[in-house]
Write a structure and sequence with these properties.
heterotrimer; A mainly alpha (528); B alpha+beta (197); C alpha+beta (383); A: 528 residues; mainly alpha; Cytochrome C Oxidase, Chain A; 16 helices; C: 383 residues; alpha+beta; Helix Hairpins; Cytochrome Bc1 Complex, Chain D, domain 2; 3 domains
Chain lengths: 528, 197, 383
């Protein structure tokens, strides 16, 4: 559990931030960079969300009404890439930047200039990716999982730009992870042992190690693609002695840890928020650390559960089934610990708590569908249907995204010094909660009933629930405009926040002023 | 920056490079792993060097030959016998008929695949047209041999095996410039090969 | 003994869930659930699905129950002083070990069913299934017949110009036909990119990978028409290449095989026959509707800048040999593929002749026709 702390008091006010636009271009300050990441991720969320609106609009009714199938495939591909690499991951990095130094009592991240570079290459990467929409042949259209040979021999010319863009995003994540690990391992205030570190910091330590391990593998996969497309190699081409299935092994070796990369920080955030609003110390701090560690380690040996239908040998299918089922154990431990924290607590339901509680419930539902997917013979009926789409959207939207929103509501009073409007926050929550469930719950049924994924049109028996799902999506999408309004409103003003902000909040960041000075903890705090 | 930080940074950078190299190592590792554990759906693309495969004690096995032309590969390609009944532990020579009906010299690569996949590690070949690329002049035809044996360790439960060959047109593929291949994708304009819809 | 026990459990579970879910009150819910299917394996798979589902529901009720109770009973108002307990090793061990045991309980029947599915030894009938962009080809290896299976739903329904039929997007021109009660083995591969062959009622899904073969098997108890889908993104028309399998009594199957063989013979005869232009045009129209309208449009106008017009086209009007070459070879670097594999000599001649004689082309150009023998000639080696 987090350390007992002594109040920080005022810090040195050496230099305030620079003036003008160049402040943001050249900043090496972790708070500024955190802000940049968060705004970038929000814009990407809205762009990726717009693409989702196109998808759901086309799926509103059977038949092709709005877009052609080629363009539809570009939308679904970019939607996935933007949400994964442009919205969720940068948001978590933004939170890491803002919070880790403050939570461990460090003045900034270990490598501030590399931090700046890590951020600024991201808009470049996404500019390249999005501009492919206007290239001859259109944007990438082979799904965010870009299986060969659809993504090699049969790809549009923009695939080369896609590969370039992925390399840049990967470099950004790798540099960011190096920064996180070095900061956490070497710059904690004296007295803050690893086990005294808050859980958000733990979650990011583990996530950063995962990123170091698997982002280079993604880089390898796209490099091999590049070589197959342009340099006559045959990594994934059967004609040359290669194997399309090899692509899937390499991709998912990255891809599975990637999805845990996208959820571990959410676990950290949830632990902080539930503890605060239950006014009760988090139950099982040590277990929570072990659970996250086990999840991370197990995530390396389950990748082929995405490949149950490619014709793997029986022994492999059995192994991956059992290993995948096993991940439910540490994940369940976390859910039980959160619930036990709430039990006999003293709970209030401010907006962050609403998002955090629904994270626990809805992520667990996503976990249940994940457990069902792990059962290989049953997976033969679920694979590549809307059942899978429902599963991963449950863990990513009311999972990762809700935790990001919870984090924003929770910490924005600290970052800006202003309280957000609680009534509007609750309205945003309820609209999002209803929207997300109306959108994604019926997709379980649609998938079970037989609708495949990545299709722009469907047979008539799927029509009713597709329409319901689309309505939910429009509601959810529109609600995020409200969120944008709330965030801007809060940045511009609001009820003044105290340093502590929330009764029951624990951690070094709550000892600082709201907003904190530009440079904090230039002298390390005392931890006891 | 303190020494501890510098050390961590160095270690992490090595890890990054190491994992990048690991992803490329996965290519041969994939094959090695399959061989060592016996989990092998892939068939060797070279002749066996094992001298002592023949036995007297084999059992019945039926082998179904299946052929397919990838994409628009225009050659005539079919097995001489589509179903044969052989013994394990005994060599058998099968042939495939090929013909190039076009007016250009072409080169083909045949890729084998076997089902069930756990039969693959028990299939050995002394000779196979899939070991090398095959070139045929315009109008030329040939009977291509496969000299194969299924060893006695083939699991009892497997009573029949399907051996499939897919031929690919690698005429242009051999050209140092992948230009033609790449240009084909360039002009697809996002529309794939056969827009019947 | 262990294996037998789990088989019995599997069958028992399938029976229990089937009986509950077949009752009329659940009929509506059946539409939302996985199909029970028509094979022993599909019913086992359904049983597994429901078993895991109910276990998850049970766990959910317990966990969310405690949570919702806490949310109401321990608000700040009702419980202003929170308790301070924050760890308990026994509890942690308990809720690690108990879930682990529940998982083992699930893994046993699941593994058993998987082992059965992998029993791809012999089959009475072997059918090679080849995925193309965007259709399936089926070859019956024992009887040496083969055919393509294309989506039958026409563009007018898809674009809302005419009402959608009952089997919208789930109908094909040539379904797979198999007999009841026989073990059918499917040998699945692909011609270009990765596709996937899914037949929900048989609980079969295997990826179709170019250059490699995957197998699946089934024994179907109940005659009927069963519909499935392609389940791997394969390009533009991934959503438009369904799978249809008709399961019929043995006698009907035998008749169907005989008729297919006869059709192949007849096709050979037709190739030899002397066709008139009118006969070719009439046959060609149907071929054109099925294969060409998507790009070249029903009026032959194409889509300017993307798909060339055939009406008034110089090649169609004046260049019979280039016209033939394009249909047989495709166009390098463009979307026009070769149709030599899909179209018989008769159909190829018919569709070419149709385009040369339609939309005013007959008057404007040389109006020359192509007959099936021309196609046979074309396929011979050039000296």
């Amino acid at each position: 559990m987090s350390a007992v702390i002594e109040s920080q008091g005022h810090d040195d006010h050496h230099h305030g931030p620079a003036k003008g636009l160049t402040r943001w271009l050249y900043t090496t300050n972790h708070k500024d960079i955190g802000t940049l990441y968060l705004w970038f991720s929000f814009s990407m969320f809205l762009i990726g969300g717009a693409m989702a609106m196109v998808i759901r609009a086309e799926l509103f009714q059977p038949g092709m009404q709005i877009v052609e199938p080629e363009f539809y495939n570009q939308m679904l591909t970019l939607h996935g890439l933007i949400m994964v690499f442009g919205a969720v991951m940068p948001a978590f990095v933004g939170l890491a930047n803002w919070l880790i130094p403050m939570m461990v009592g460090a003045p900034d991240m270990a490598l501030p200039r590399m931090n700046n570079l890590s951020f600024w290459i991201l808009p470049v990467a996404f500019f390249i990716l999005l501009s492919s929409l206007f290239m001859e042949g259109g944007a990438p259209n082979f799904g965010w999982t870009f299986y060969a040979p659809l993504s090699t021999t049969y790809a549009p010319p923009s695939v080369t730009f896609f590969i370039f863009s992925v390399h840049i995003m990967g470099a950004s994540s790798i540099m960011g992870s190096i920064n996180v690990i070095v900061t956490i391992m070497n710059m904690r205030a004296p007295g803050m042992t690893l086990m005294k570190m808050p859980l958000f910091v733990w979650s990011w330590l583990i996530t950063a190690y995962l990123l170091i391990a698997v982002m280079p593998v993604l880089a390898g996969a796209v490099t091999m693609m590049l070589m197959d497309i342009h340099f006559g190699t045959s990594f994934f081409n059967a004609a040359g002695g290669g194997d399309p299935v090899l692509f899937q092994h390499i991709f998912w070796f990255f891809g599975h840890p990637e999805v845990y990369i996208m959820i571990l920080p959410a676990f950290g955030i949830t632990s902080h928020i539930i503890e605060t609003f239950s006014r009760k110390q988090l139950f099982g701090h040590t277990s929570m650390v072990w659970a996250m560690t086990s999840i991370a380690i197990l995530s390396f040996v389950v990748w082929a559960h995405h490949m149950f239908t490619v014709g793997l040998p029986l022994a492999a299918e059995l192994f991956f089934m059992w290993a995948t089922m096993l991940i439910a154990v540490p994940t369940g431990v976390k859910v039980f610990n959160w619930v036990t924290t709430m039990f006999k607590g003293s709970i209030t339901y401010e907006t962050p708590m609403l998002f955090a509680i629904s994270f626990v419930v809805l992520f667990t539902i996503g976990g249940f569908s994940g457990l069902m997917l792990a059962i290989t013979p049953a997976d033969f009926q679920y694979h590549d249907t809307y059942f899978v789409v429902a599963h991963f959207h449950y863990v990513l939207v009311p999972g990762a995204i809700f935790s990001i929103m919870a984090a924003v509501y929770y910490w924005i009073p600290k970052w800006t010094g202003n309280m957000y409007d609680e009534r509007l926050g609750r309205l945003h929550f309820w609209l999002s909660f209803i929207g997300v469930n109306v959108t994604f719950f019926p997709q379980h049924w649609i998938g079970l009933a037989g609708m495949p994924r990545r299709v722009p049109d469907y047979a008539l028996q799927f029509a009713d629930w597709n329409m319901v799902s689309s309505v939910g999506a429009f509601l959810f999408g529109a609600s995020q405009i409200l969120f944008l309004f709330i965030v801007i409103k809060t940045v511009m003003g609001g009820k003044k926040a105290t340093p502590e902000v929330w009764e029951g909040a624990r951690g070094l960041e709550w000892t600082l002023d709201s907003p904190p000075p530009y440079h904090t903890f230039t002298t390390p705090p005392k931890i006891s | 920056m303190n020494e501890g930080s510098k050390k961590t940074i160095r270690l992490l950078c090595f890890s990054v490079l190491g994992m990048f190299a690991f992803s490329f190592a996965l290519v041969p590792l994939y094959d090695v792993f399959c061989e060592v554990t016996g989990l092998n759906g892939k068939i060797a693309l070279s002749a066996t060097t094992n001298e002592n495969l023949e036995t007297e004690s084999g059992r019945n096995l039926s082998v179904q030959f299946v052929s397919h032309n990838n994409e628009q590969m225009p050659w005539v390609f079919r097995p001489s016998d589509s179903l044969i009944k052989i013994q394990t532990g005994e060599f058998h020579t099968a042939t495939f008929y090929v013909k190039n009906p076009t007016d250009k010299t072409m080169t083909a690569q045949a890729i084998p695949s076997v089902a069930p996949s756990n039969a693959a590690s028990h299939l050995k070949k002394l000779e196979c047209f899939c070991f090398e690329q095959q070139e045929l002049a315009p109008g030329e035809e040939a009977l291509l041999p496969v000299r194969l044996i299924f060893d006695d360790d083939l699991p009892e439960s497997i009573k029949s095996v399907v051996l499939s060959y897919t031929i690919f047109d690698v005429t242009d593929y051999n050209a140092i410039e992948m230009k033609e291949h790449h240009n084909a994708s360039d002009h697809h304009n996002g529309h794939e090969m056969e827009p019947s819809l | 003994m262990f294996k037998k026990a789990t088989t019995t459990i599997n069958k028992g579970l399938a029976a229990i869930f089937l009986s509950i879910f077949s009752s009329p009150s659940f009929a509506a819910w059946n539409d939302l659930n996985m199909t029970q299917g028509v094979t022993a394996i599909s019913k086992e798979v359904f049983g597994l699905h429901m078993l895991i589902f109910w276990i998850c529901v049970a766990i959910g009720i317990v966990v969310f129950g405690v949570m919702f109770y806490s949310m109401f009973a321990f608000t700040k108002k009702k419980n202003p002083n929170a308790s301070t307990f924050h760890e308990n090793t026994t509890l942690e061990l308990a809720w690690t070990i108990v879930p682990f045991l529940i998982l083992v309980l699930m893994a046993v029947p699941a593994s058993n069913t998987l082992i059965k599915i992998y029993d791809d030894t012999e089959g009475d009938i072997n059918i090679q299934v080849i995925g193309y962009q965007w259709k399936w080809e089926y070859r019956y290896l024992e009887d040496n017949i083969g055919f393509f299976s294309n989506l039958k739903t026409d563009l007018d329904e898809i674009y809302g110009r005419t009402p959608k039929g009952e089997h919208y997007l789930e109908e094909v021109d040539e379904p797979v036909v198999i007999p009841v009660g026989k073990k059918i083995r499917f040998l699945i591969t692909a011609n270009d990119v990765i596709h996937s062959w899914w037949m929900p009622d048989f609980a079969i899904k295997q990826d179709a990978i170019p250059g490699f073969i995957n197998t699946a098997w089934t024994i179907v108890d109940k005659p009927g028409t069963y519909r499935g889908k392609c389940t791997e993104l394969c390009g533009r028309s991934h959503g438009f290449m369904p799978v249809v399998v008709k399961v019929v009594p043995q006698e009907e199957y035998d008749l169907w095989i005989a008729s297919k063989k006869e059709a192949a013979l007849r096709m050979a005869e037709l190739t030899e026959k002397n066709w008139t232009a009118e006969e070719l045009v009439q046959r060609g129209e149907g071929i054109y509707q099925k294969n060409c309208v998507a790009c070249h449009q029903p009026n032959g106008a194409g889509i300017p800048g993307i798909f060339p017009a055939l009406a008034g086209s110089d090649i169609v009007l004046n260049n019979k040999s280039r016209h033939l070459e394009i249909l047989m070879e495709g166009v390098q670097g463009a979307a026009m593929a070769s149709y030599a594999k899909q179209l018989s000599e008769v159909d190829m001649a018919a569709v070419i002749t149709y385009t040369r004689r339609s939309w005013g082309n007959a008057e404007k150009g040389d109006g020359e026709i192509i007959v099936p023998k021309d196609i046979v000639e074309y396929k011979k080696p050039k000296v």
